[in-house]
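Ticket 4471: requesting a sanity check on a complex prediction with copper (II) ion. Repro inputs:
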Amino acid sequence: MSPYQWAINGAAFPRNRTLAIENAKRVSVQLENTTMMAHPMHIHGHTFALPNGLRKDTVLLKPMQTVAIGLEANNPGNWMAHCHNIYHAEAGMMAALVYQS
Ligand SMILES: [Cu+2]
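Returned structure tokens:
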């Protein structure tokens, strides 16, 4: 186990809240980095739209930066969203993304 923890929505995985999404919906997700480190945030199984219109599957959040992404729920299943600094993900910076039936 890592000697320190990183969190999403206030808690380290798996103690944090599951992110629920409904199939065939497009949602706006606010990614807010409240730390002094950069975090490349990645969502499995999906791409998302950045405010400038680019479609990506990872967005680099600078320290204290907030970015709203447009996520289309078009790939039902159980997925993970996490920091792509794997040592952060391994320290809890992950969240489950689950489709509601
Ligand atoms: Cu990170």
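Notes from triage: The two ends are 34 Å apart (CA to CA). Leaving this open until the requester confirms.
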